Amino acid sequence: MRRRLWTLEEFPFHPEKLNHYETLFTIGNGYLATRGTFEEDFDGSMATTMVHGVFNHAQGVLVPELVNSFNWLPIHITIDGTPFQLINQNDTTPNPPGGAVLGYRRTLDLYRGVLLREVLFRAESGAIVRLSFERFVSLHDYHVLAQHIQLVAVDGNPEIEVESFIDPHVTNAGAQHWTDITTDYDDARVSVIAKTNQSGYTLGMASHLVAPGKVETVMDTANQRPVTRTSFTLRTEETADVYKFISVFTNRDVSPVALPGKLFDKLDSALGSGYDGLLQAHEAEWAAYWDTSDIQIEGDDTSQFALRFVTYHILIAAPRHDDDVSVGAKTLSGLGYKGHVFWDTELFIVPPLTLTQPRLARNLLMYRYHRLAGARHKAQANGYEGAMFPWESTDTGEETTPQWSDPQPDGHRIRIWTGDSEQHISTDIAYSLLQYWHWTGDHDFLIRYGAEIVLDTAVFWGSRVEHKNGRYEISQQIGPDEYHENIDNSIFTNRMVVWHLNEALKLLDWLNANAPADAKRLIQALDLTPARLDKWRDIIANMFIPFDEKQQIHIQFPGFFEMEFIPVPHYEPRTLSVQAILGHYRSIQTQVIKQADVVMLMALLGEELAPRDVLLNNFNTYYPRTDHGSSLSPAMHAWVASQLGLDEIAYEMFEHAGAIDLHDNKGNVRDGIHGAASGGLFQALLFGFCGLRLGENGPEVTPRLPEHWKSVSFTVYYRGEKRRIRVTNPVAVVPTA
Amino acid sequence: MRRRLWTLEEFPFHPEKLNHYETLFTIGNGYLATRGTFEEDFDGSMATTMVHGVFNHAQGVLVPELVNSFNWLPIHITIDGTPFQLINQNDTTPNPPGGAVLGYRRTLDLYRGVLLREVLFRAESGAIVRLSFERFVSLHDYHVLAQHIQLVAVDGNPEIEVESFIDPHVTNAGAQHWTDITTDYDDARVSVIAKTNQSGYTLGMASHLVAPGKVETVMDTANQRPVTRTSFTLRTEETADVYKFISVFTNRDVSPVALPGKLFDKLDSALGSGYDGLLQAHEAEWAAYWDTSDIQIEGDDTSQFALRFVTYHILIAAPRHDDDVSVGAKTLSGLGYKGHVFWDTELFIVPPLTLTQPRLARNLLMYRYHRLAGARHKAQANGYEGAMFPWESTDTGEETTPQWSDPQPDGHRIRIWTGDSEQHISTDIAYSLLQYWHWTGDHDFLIRYGAEIVLDTAVFWGSRVEHKNGRYEISQQIGPDEYHENIDNSIFTNRMVVWHLNEALKLLDWLNANAPADAKRLIQALDLTPARLDKWRDIIANMFIPFDEKQQIHIQFPGFFEMEFIPVPHYEPRTLSVQAILGHYRSIQTQVIKQADVVMLMALLGEELAPRDVLLNNFNTYYPRTDHGSSLSPAMHAWVASQLGLDEIAYEMFEHAGAIDLHDNKGNVRDGIHGAASGGLFQALLFGFCGLRLGENGPEVTPRLPEHWKSVSFTVYYRGEKRRIRVTNPVAVVPTA
Prior knowledge:
By secondary structure, the first copy, chain A, is of the alpha+beta class.
């Protein structure tokens, strides 16, 4: 039976949502992910498999991008000569040319990480065949992918032909990344190996087809590829099973010389386990994931499903066995933002993993450690000291934010300033890292890797601030509210820098006390002289924090309230950002805010920022000015509103956040899952509604659940131990194990 | 705040679902209903208002149909010269010709019976206006309809023009029903009166517009209609309110001579109450409806909403003040089935009303009483005695089933036999009527009206049965399974006739004991001689009930199992009926069943039909042969499966039934709500999952709730008293008041 509130379903086929659903139905295992495209061709589909870490800078593209890897899915089936395809849905005329789809259901079982598509198809001959396509990418052995197609002859005695291949002729929306494609084949097997044309990564995939009939591989000369094929007859009510096993390696896993051998060895072991064996091991890993990552909500099915959906998408993207890659803003589920890593990862995606899968959080933080060289290079190139992380990051660790947008409808490009000016990323990384440390108590990580990041980014800020007007200022910034570019004294940045330097000093004290040798090593390596630390203290004391004493509110940046006021709520029920409605050039001269900025600061610092009264003033000031032009915004508002007792707004924002991908509110899910919105939803629930925080003796909660919710049950790791917590409405907190 | 699980929402605009949503967003008050079409024109929309009882037989149409009445909705708004319309959704180019829709949300508040549409619109001038359109048809005063449009100038200082009119130039998909259209107007008022061209019903509507500016009515000569209009300027952030009050009467309410005066009197009183006053009285009536009609399900939001949705649609269609009309198969929400009344009403729609709104159930049953003449006419015309109700019924009470279908894709028409052969309708009415009597104890109704129906339809059956082969048989029937036409000895019909005659005899005994004068009157009037009653007893004893002793199953009709077997489950996940897949002519020669037939019999008679073992055998035999080609089927299966302990099937069928209109599974919701499926869902929940039945001392339950449900709370009337019942999972039954 279908697992209730664990299943994403498409019924019947919705071709108008093709690309949206391809994103939603993505499967992955933290090594790679594959969009929910079909085994057969379908016009307009965006077949995409992305393997972590395989970046390439193609000709004609402004910046490097995560490469669309070979398409391993193709299995083309012909029934009495009619190619199976999603055509003529519900056409009941007796013999429509091309056949007809008479039934269709697609389900993604989030609990098991298994995608199933069932189709009832009538061939031109009149034969009716029921096809079911099941696939998974093994969470147990991440080099193994598997497909199972079952065919039942429902009416007639059709002749079935099956063709399987691996397609390396894929692009990133036209950009060519692959070169030196070589293929090999033998009986039921095919292998394809190729290199990226600039970065020189090698990728190999091999497949083995198990099917009735005489399975053989031949060269399809027209398409220049080896094709494994077979044919057989099905009598009425007979069933046939077709299995395709795929192995995949890159030169990040194994040397290019050894790669072909590894591909075939892995196929042998997969065949040895068999489809059911592989599936069983895969399911066991998923069950272990959900044991700690599942949040159970009683009393709100929509929220329950939304939570599981976002958690699934974080889990399939988070690398398990690799600490040298990270999760891009669109996860691995689409080409949007080119697979680049933003602050989205540290402030939105890492915290849920810190709480429920700390090993995965550590991998993501280590990715930054391995890129300190790039961060130092960026600091140096900009005339600063220490480590200045790039706004957009890839494999190299260098800044990869494009300087220009894609052409706008009128043909002109817009200058993108975030790579220059959105500098808070370095502090976001420190925040996430220290949060990880506090929850996990992973001193080993901190001492060997993390401290260096926190301290060297502090060094950067020490060199970055400007001493003028008798105080410290930071000019030319972009805060989370990216509608206002290159402003001076963004409160988000200024205040977080104070927080950062303060934490850096506390960290040094802790190291001196608990790991003196490492403290010494770092002081020396990063040149943490007493004079430098004194300057940090001076900055902490004298940083300019824009504040309106009369109104008792923080000011997003000086001058903000002098701009045109636009009452954003009056633009409801808009389906666009107010920026899109008013146009770029007008909106940047108004008080319209793209996303939580001061509100985000409140989420991160809570009452450390200001007393509750001021926080409430802030929220009431900025909320009606925010158009949530970024998907990151609603969840942060839900979190903060809940903690401030603004229950209606909190729930509305929570619902908004939960619908971003499932309902495609922004119309861009085709380009991939909104990873930050996903992690944000998770945090809004735990840090917002449940009021989860780390107290002296471990996790504490001050719940404020939506009125109609009955309870929330979740698990968090605290210093290596699982803590199971259940909060109920009316409030009661029950540690359940 | 939006009422949770009470609100149907469309966000943003889904033009591809235009007609589907027009049906879902229908509002009504039991006197008339109006589809959710827009105030402005939209290509392809099916503007429909239907007033109960107004039938007409137009030229070129095979049978009479419920008439599409005047469209009272039109309010055309122009903003800086740009006509407001749903155009260029999300077009952000600065000045798209025709303007652009930048936001859209539509909500139907089921609790209050209020439809709201909010739109953000940019005129060609660049001015942005937020429009909200609210409407309701008063449940308090059913001759009053009201609209409130609010406009806010969000950006710019637009010049607003408003035009309002009533449109009598409407058709039923091309069929012309109205003639003698006369209009009158004065200041802010317009009235339109017309007659149906065959049946001679008179309909009048009048409107009064309240709006800023100089409101005046002028003749629009191009369109030959009076138009009420005004214009005014809105400055940025200014709000304008426009109200349209509509009154409506037919010559069924008032004599044609008095009608114009009544229209204006009613407008005066509506204006006196004001929009808010009218709305308040309307909401109070709705609250009273929901007090007894709302079923609360804890633990399943989808089912909860589905229940409220179907209950809403039954309530808006059920006549409150009129016992001479009934609810058609598609309620008042679409033109499907021409507003005709089928068995759907008595076996699907009446029972929920019997339980929760007995006054409305009585109205529907009285409709049949008033049509005994038609039923007697049909019996006589066919050579039988007593009363033989028509398969399809309108105002006249005569048989109005068309004999031929609309042309099929290949141009030919199919002969429709249901009007000739689906004779079980007479017994269905008796069943519903006696169920009403048992629950309500409404002896007055029974004695004065109901008994005559039960007895005279029994007289019909006494004359209808055929004595051959030493037993009673009934040839040339169609049972609920309409795929098998003109078969002999349909078990549904034969067995229900036995039940019917038995109940008739019991009823006569009851009348003799409790209302001897009326018993005498009826015996005389209906000629219930001892010989006739003896024959009934003989029929009861000797009716042929097809049964397979070896398999211990009932046989749908002799010969059924000799036809080709088609394993219906193998056709999943079909989106079509198996009949549509195999084609009419092949499928009727197979064992594929359109809908619950033997299973329906089991729902109606329970263990009165057979011991539980046989019922289980029956279900297991017929379920895999049923393709649910009728929307009536899944709910009946849910009911019976639940009572037989087949929990998985029960819930699957329940979900299926709940999605029929909301998800448009059958692709025909454009033609109206599936009224029987709606009432069926309600019954599946109460009679199935809750096991509700009438015991010696009142309502009893034997609940078997779906695993994940926490509880079900509902109210039923028993002999005039409200009984509030709550069943929980695990099982506990709590009378809550």
